[in-house]
Amino acid sequence: MLDFEHKKHIFFECLNNKNGSYADSIREEIEFYFDCSDNEMNFLDKFYTREEIYSFTNMLVSKIIMNEHQDGFNDIIMHYCH
Hints:
This protein is an all-alpha fold. The protein has four helices and no strands.
């Protein structure tokens, strides 16, 4: 089982996987939101594996890309991460 600090490391590791697309800027915004703003990351408690964290992170990036024009970045983060 992963401890909380390891889960955070995996989450930020996934956010740092860049591929030269618009998603890179979304990943940077998410990273800033959680790393630089000291926002709660308790949502990571529900994950048990690296794969689950990667899957969630990629889903979150996709949801923001698809819906940010209608819901806004903060609203999407609040929905999925709080």
